[in-house]
């Protein structure tokens, strides 16, 4: 038996959290706690990098698989990664330390408890991405609600209680139907093991209903129009680190779920419901982009832009084309980096001015130039400028979409223009213009830690923008096999 | 000659009751020794139960009027453990109210005896005897804090309504007897297979009486008032132990004498289950008193256990038993927290008293957090698995409506559990509570919380124990 590397990835943050739990909580800036949390997450990141290096890119079968009996004769604890999930795991382990460095200013009280919540969250998120059993997946998927509820509720802004409740109940409501579907799958096929289910296949007559049950959960989590309304609230009220986790990783769980479960388990139903997804995605892209244009709150604007970007992701996944799915995965990774960076840049000025309103700012470029340059890079990455990772994702998705459905692709392309409009307009209003607000003159530029984390995020955005090969090589075989499996399923029915 | 070893637990506990009664009467200031001795009595009874009956697959005694099988021994053990824990954490509460008397442990012992008889009954008369024994003890327990108006009111209310339901039950029994010609469950089971119109009435009356005992909607009206008025430790007893016994009887009635009449009772159980799940969840939202809230939450939890029973399968029965066992642990933990809300000899019971608890009492709040999320059924806590098993059984029978309604009502229920968490964690703090709790209380809280938290690591053990129960 090999070293259980995935389980240690899942367990390590919990061990760190336990360690923190038994240290004494100090008031104010609790450096010990921070270093412990940082150390844990960095080690986790290094392990995941090792995972990526030793990952075999030439096969689509699951690697590093661990399979243990968990509930006798019923459920196995089964985890493993393929080319698709490994990238999400690395994204998770990469974003979490950045969150932990960024808590410096945004979290004032109960820092230790906050770090514990983040660490537990990390382990659940990794669990979601490597679970190969539906019940195990559901467990991790749902368990993440608890720490996130507390993060928003305890450390959030003024309307935090409302947002925390909305977040929790919306997601729970979506997920319970998925639970019904999972148990039904068990009774239909006799297993909840994803790999076996891929081989057996699920009877066509059940597929539509099951697909809808999974969809109800993933649509809320993605979030897709019209069930996206929890996201702006949750984003706005959550502390910066919470928004980063939410935007960068939590939203990706649903996209990942669509690829792994909706496409993999219900190929026929996916074909049937493609028009539905297309419609909702296109509405999400256009509609939320327009809403984003009108926002006065920066965090809300970014939140709506997330909905629009996730609209591209769902569109790409259900093109069922090689390019579309690859584009969606890259778009998700890129959006994870970019939205995290954007929330952090908003967090930087929020910590100094305590205002998220766009009208507070203006003319920042003359007082804090370093900040303005990085902000520009992230804004451009968000609108998908060539040379940033955002471009690769959107381009591939649109390519896939043009192959499959011309009209949808054209409408989605309009969304790209709208995306450019709201991002550039935001940037113009915040950074350019005259410096009117007197308080802004005393604002400080990025300090060392902020500079460090923002550069950490900028590097991969640029690197993968110019050289996306490492990403594409990793996912290529898995995606090809997924599509082959899908096509053979369609052909045989 | 009958093998009396099988009823040794009952014999032992009756002898202990008599002995303790005599001791209490003739020895002055004997409340402490009575408490300790009754704890030992329960412990020894539990050991005897495990030793003598746990390996028995099915035996009947006394003209087949008493049955000892894996169901009865498991449920007896859960009852005894529940009674033991209630007794163990009661003393400091009772001392505060100056009602630390010998009657309390003796009444608990006698109600446990009544429940054990109920659990083992295989005959209408034996069943009714056990039921009345436990009820009479419970009436007195409800009024145990006799100087308080609310407690007396609770006892009276419980007595009147319970007597009414017992009457209905008895009437149902007489109808069933009239049709089958026997009081023995097995014989009834063979006799009853006709679709007689009046027989349905008998079944309905019996089910109504039983539904009253487990406070399933629409026969739940007594529960919130009685739970609120009774002394907190007695409420703890009410919410756990009698329900175990009543659930066992429910299982026995449905699956032994009424097994051939599934068409008649399945719809009733499904209705009771759905009504309890929804009503318990919705009605709890507006509550301000924690004990009333627990009453409504226990109603909705009973709904889930009934969902398991409605499936007519061994898996369903097993899942109900798993559910009630996990519920007992969660309930115990919740009441331990409630008993810790004490400041200068006064106990606090309002939800608003929990406000900002996490600032002054981080450990207690963390326990409450775990317990409440578990009650709401969020993975990976034990409460999720309880619901999970029930829904597996329900969906095996393709009862999609029941499953979906049940799961949607968990979302509603999640709302009021979240509200308490919000009050604990997000609101302004109040004065500190005392922290000098008895060791047993702390111990029970710690152990039960850890059980809830880490149940997911070894879920198989409980299933293994329960899977020996095969009724159908």
> Could you estimate the helical fraction of the residues of chain B in percent?
over 70%
**Number of helices, counting only DSSP H or I runs of 4 residues or more of chain A:** 20
* Alpha carbon gyration radius of chain A: 22 Å
- Give the helix/strand class of chain B: mainly alpha
Counting DSSP E segments of at least 2 residues, the number of strands of chain B comes to 4
Beta content of chain B:
under 5%
Radius of gyration of chain B: 21 Å
State the strand order across the main sheet of chain A: 1-2
Largest interface, counted with CB-CB under 8 A?
A: A-B, 32 and 30 residues
Strand order of the largest sheet of chain B: 1-2
| N- and C-termini, Cα separation of chain A | 39 Å
Strand percentage of chain A lies at: under 5%
**Sequence of secondary-structure elements of chain B:** HHEEHHHHHHHHHHHEEHHHHHH
Low-confidence sequence ranges of chain B: none
Head-to-tail CA distance between termini of chain B: 29 Å
Q: With helices defined by DSSP (H or I, 4 residues minimum), what is the helix count of chain B?
A: 19
Could you say which overall geometry of chain A the principal axes of the C-alpha atoms support? globular
In the predicted model, the low-confidence regions of chain A spanning at least 5 consecutive residues are none
Quick one: overall form of chain B? globular
Mean pLDDT level of chain B? 87
